[in-house]
Automatic annotation (TrEMBL):
This is RNA chaperone ProQ. The keyword Chaperone applies. Residues 115-127 have a biased composition (Basic and acidic residues). It is found in: Cytoplasm. Residues 132-146 have a biased composition (Low complexity). The lineage of its organism: Bacteria, Pseudomonadati, Pseudomonadota, Gammaproteobacteria, Vibrionales.
Amino acid sequence: MENSEKLANSKEVIAYIAERFPKCFILEGEAKPLKIGIFQDLSERLSDDPKVSKTQLRAGLRQYTSSWRYLHGVKPGASRVDLDGNPCGELEEEHIEHAKATLEESKAKVAARRKEQAKKVREEAKAKKTARAATPPKRRPQPAAAKKVEQPVETRALNADEITVGNNVSVNMGKGNMPATIVEINKDDVRIRLSNGLQMVVKAENLRS
């Protein structure tokens, strides 16, 4: 069963009538000028065709005859053709001039549109370039400075004669040596005063020079 679904757009209509009437309508190359009143002939020949309506035929013909390849074909010496490709008279001068003017106007519109699009592209590119120039570049994170490794302070155990009141010494506090002053001596215990004023009792063996 033949597919009778209606054609969707003018492009499909043109392809369909070119298939039905190949001696009149073509899809590629320079088109032939059409017989005056070709719409009426098409309407009659396709009146029982469920795939295409008169409205679609009219829109399809309008698109076909306004194409550049059709307007190129409307020139001196060309003959109009009917649906079966039979000649239907020479073109009149006014029709040739009208086709020429329409073609030039159409090409001018396309050229102007392309020029406007190119201008828009340039302006957008310029705007992006300006925006990039106004935006300061992101600073790359600087590598963290290597922590300075403190060299351990060389110390030595105190001699017996160095354990005297008022002598400045260092005391081993576990994490390191802290400066201190001897304030009192009791046998093996020694009272010292740290640089922050705090006093404490430590073993003499924990004192260093």
